[in-house]
Amino acid sequence: xxxxxxxxxxxxxxxxxxxxxxxxxxxxxxxxxxxxxxxxxxxxxxxxxxxxxxxxxxxxxxxxxxxxxxxxxxxxxxxxxxxxxxxxxxxxxxxxxxxxxxxxxxxxxxxxxxxxxxxxxxxxxxxxxxxxxxxxxxxxxxxxxxxxxxxxxxxxxxxxxxxxxxxxxxxxxxxxxxxxxxxxxxxxxxxxxxxxxxxxxxxxxxxxxxxxxxxxxxxxxxxxxxxxxxxxxxxxxxxxxxxxxxxxxxxxxxxxxxxxxxxxxxxxxxxxxxxxxxxxxxxxxxxxxxxxxxxxxxxxxxxxxxxxxxxxxxxxxxxxxxxxxxxxxx
Length: 330
What we know:
alpha/beta, 2-enoyl-CoA Hydratase, Chain A, domain 1, 9-stranded mixed sheet, two-stranded antiparallel ribbon, 11 helices, 11 strands
């Protein structure tokens, strides 16, 4: 090991010791103070979120949960930070808000173009199940965008409030792939595949897609679309045919969405809080806000010190080229 690598290793060890020490102190402090959220590290069992006061009040507590960004489970990404959406942490926040007896109502702030069909469904089912178990009112407040998967996860809400500049709707499913065959031919690149079945390499970007593959993939997309339509019909108390007429993938303004029955009213986050307060008959609610805390990512630290990591680059490229069905506006 050369001198530079020894120095890099020493820096990592020092930072790791500092982090562990800081986290231990934070955990000790949390035992006598904030019981709702503290830091998380590989050495702590505490949740990776915290709460802060959004609006102090003397009455019952309303909790604000936030979905900011694309709804995908990218917790292992190098880009993990408190500013980005973290799927696993958000699911824990949802559980915490519903389980906490002090929280009487929930406002879900959605500012998202949507995301993975699996992740959107996971959020929807968890919220729906917890609402049924704890009978807590939930109001959705839509930000700049609450489309596709962002609209999907809003369906368990008792009321949906959108900002007058919100873009919403985009009810539908999309799956995209690439065709590199022409470029590969020009570069003299040939892929050799050994497969056990005719469709084992379906959507292979190194060749043209076949009619049979198109039919297979369209059948899958149609099935996922049907789930979306059913969820909207149930959540908005609409008949299925009425939903299908407006669920062609287009986006709607807040005014258009209200006229179609996709949302209940137009207003900002404070209006959503007021609606939630009315639902629990509270004139002066205490409003708390759930926030992510930065996660210590040792692999990210190694990347920052030694940015050229062949294995990591390969993994990121593989992840980016895998076709994935999305409830996503694009």
